[in-house]
Amino acid sequence: MTDYETVIGLETHIQLNTTTKIFCGCKADSWEQPPNTNICPVCSGLPGVLPVLNEAAVRKGALLAAAMHSEIRLTSYFDRKNYFYPDLPKGYQISQYDISLGGGGFLDLPMPDGSMRRVNIAKLHLEEDAGKTKYENGVRYVDFNRCGVPLVEMVTGPDLRSADEAAQYLIRLRQLLRWLGVSEADMEKGHLRCDANVSIREMGSTVLNTKTEIKNINSIEAVRTAINTEVERQIALVEAGGRVEAWTLDWDDALKRLKKMRSKETEADYRYFREPDLLPLKLDEAWRDEVLELLPELPLARRTRFMTDYDLPEYDADILTGDRPISEYFEAAVKAYGGDPKAVSNWIMNEILRMLNDLGLAADELTITPEHLAAVIRMVDAGTINNATGKAVLAKAQTSGKSPESIVEEEGLAQVSDDSALQAVIDQVLAANPDELNSYRNGKEGLFGWFMGQVMRETRGKADPQLTRQLLAKALKGE
Ligand code: ZN
Ligand code: MN
Question: Which CATH architecture describes the domain 419-476?
Fold first, then answer.
């Protein structure tokens, strides 16, 4: 058996979340409205109209380029990509071909073994989206609402080595897009679309064999399944003495199957030429510097900093930089708390993230502030409340908007750590449950937890668990 290596390059189309479309004033976020209600003469390709470039699209595209470590070119050009398809009313797409906004660049992916895989960016350009077609009861319908929505197309080099790495690339790219605020990056909604170029070669070889292109991959899971399916097909084909042909394949996610669409077009088929209705895109250095100043600390850099500055494990740092609001929440809470950052990390990973998940919120939309969280952790540290009460107080602070301290005070939640008060409760629980007490004394020691539960119930969860355990153990033995 020959060992094969998989070689993958990804082509992504990223919808920029601008207010208006790239060459006209139509809304860019309304393409899910009733068909053909969000169009104008420009984006529906009527003759005699002229495109006007939207600066916000250039700005977001340039910010993305900067985050991908691409050069932001001060002069770039728009070109016509000619092809005939019903969802493209002009008969061409305005795109950027040879001299585009971004030049080069890379995205680093953290690998499970702690190393980094550098994925190079071969192309990064602006273009307009096409419309959509829909097939229903034997009729094909066309909806132009999405025509002219701004896109960045980004093409990687053949640098990914497995379906998992391809999925990782998309996960990190999605994280980056949301972090920058340039795209909603929801794959299911088509804000982030992906085609995969896949080929195989014998392990150790450096040639690039004929690749196939898989289109219509609409989720991270589909990326994994579609690529693995295609790799298996290519291996079986080559093992049987066949040759891979340059097909374009369509991924049918419902049937988990690849279907041949056509033999792949070559670039010459598109007859690219400069867009005569637009001037060259000229940016000045001051404008570029302004964009560069907007660039925040990137997720990967923040992840590394969390590991070094706060001594967090990689796992924690990864989760706490999953999105920008949670990373900011964490840092603010650490500052407010002043103690061990790992304690803050634990509370966020166990309690806050679950809360965000349940409520469907981002960290900056929570009622409880980082200062509230810090106050809860401090009260637990001081023994004023126990861990379980701390969690309950957090939940109450979220729904009521009150501070954790006032909740503890108003509801009398401070821990009962007074020996005699606790002893009285324990005596009362034992007296009320003679049968259980008997069973316990006759060897059914598993009942210890049940007695703990009774004491906690009587004290409404306020009993200091450690002290309760000591006193209860004595009382049950009859000491
Ligand atoms: Zn329009
Ligand atoms: Mn494209």
Answer: Orthogonal Bundle (1.10)
